[in-house]
Amino acid sequence: MSGKCEDQFMKTFKFYRARVPPPPLSKVIDVDNAAFADKITKLTFDNNVEQDDRLELLGLKPFAHWPVFTIKKHPGLIFIRNPFTSHGQRYWIRKCLEKYPRKPNKTNIDIEVILEDWWETCYEGHKCNIQLLKKLRWTTLGYHHNWDTKEYSEANRNNFPSELSELCDVVATYLGYNAFRAEAAIVNYYHMNSTLSAHTDHSEINLEAPLFSFSFGQSAIFLIGGEDKSTVPSAVLLQSGDILVMSKEARLCYHAVPKILSSPSSPWNDNVEDIHTKDVPKFRYIYEKDVIVDMNSNQNNGNWSIFNGYVQESRINVNIRQVLNETQSRL
Ligand code: OGA
Ligand code: MN
After folding, report:
1. CB atoms within 10 A of CB 113
2. 327 assigned to some structural domain
3. How many domains does the chain have?
4. pLDDT lower than 70: segments of the chain
5. Domain of 70?
6. How far is CA 257 from CA 270, 287, 305, 313, in A?
């Protein structure tokens, strides 16, 4: 009897994982589609929230252009439909490919060979090493998630990228989570046939703090269920630029990615001509030389095309957690 109950999550997972025939998508919640209007609630925020100077710098649109929803069946799950500019998407995609897999950060490739700089190694010489390119499945930042013990430790910690903690800070503050601190991240790299099986994220000491999940590149079917696997999960469409926040009741719920879908659009390539060069001094002031160089180098030129090639057939998910309680500064 309990066996049957527990199977609900798995049943839905298998339904959406199927390849031939591909699963029907008619029940996958797409917040852009009016047919799902009764399943979601649009959240409006006090216009008291001041514009944040950091928005443009972080590749985010003004707050007035952030469509924020909750899914009625899953209280605590907050969905922000792509608040990124095209340049912003390019900026973060590049960070995930070029910078985050570098040492001292950890990747799944470490057990085979320690690469100082995975992306550079892939593009060494004139040709791309496709086999190595496809090998990267995850990289961890900050407190490194230990996949065996599932425990974080001080000995297994590096600096968390400042621009990424700033991004979380802006999103968290907008949603009212003023005390959130980004301390650990897993960047997941999915190919078109990748899946992520049902799990909960509970290794953090602080399970009250929300978890922030950013999606870039190809789309995904995301399943969100309840605190055990007996609840039939809902399927939600995640597209490039979408932010999912697992807070409150949703923080410890089962979730999974049974399928990657190829996206009919490439929002990272939309209207990229109008780069805001007028804001150079502001960028410089905050992040020294880093950001403006990155944003400018992502215009339609040779620099961007190799990253474009990657995200045309992959999905990147940046999954960010606070590990410590508010009063702690270490484990
Ligand atoms: C995770 C996770 C979901 C996603 O990394 O823990 O649940 O959308 N990722 O890839
Ligand atoms: Mn997870």
Report:
1. 9
2. no
3. 1
4. 1-6, 47-49, 273-302
5. 3-321
6. 26, 34, 27, 16
Distance CA 295, CA 291 (A): 6
User: 78 has which bridge partners?
Assistant: 70, 245
Nearest ligand for residue 196 CA:
1
| SS3 call for 169 | helix
pLDDT at 290: 53
Q: What is the CATH number of the domain that holds 15?
A: 2.60.120.590
Q: Is the CB of 186 under 6 A from ligand 1?
A: yes
Euclidean distance between CA atoms 106 and 118, whole angstroms: 11
Q: Provide the 3-class DSSP secondary structure of residue 235.
A: strand
Atom of ligand 1 nearest to the CA of 138: 5
How many CB atoms within 10 Å of residue 121? 16
pTM of this prediction exceeds 0.70: yes
Q: Is 319 in the pocket of ligand 1 (CB under 6 A)?
A: yes
**326 domain residue, yes or no:** no
Cα gap 195→13, rounded to integer Å: 10
Residue 92 lies in a domain: yes
Q: What is the pLDDT of residues 109-127, one digit of tens each?
A: 999 999 999 999 999 987 8
How high is the pLDDT of residue 52?
80
Tell me if 329 is assigned to some domain: no
User: Pairing mode, if any, of strands 211-217 and 243-246?
Assistant: antiparallel
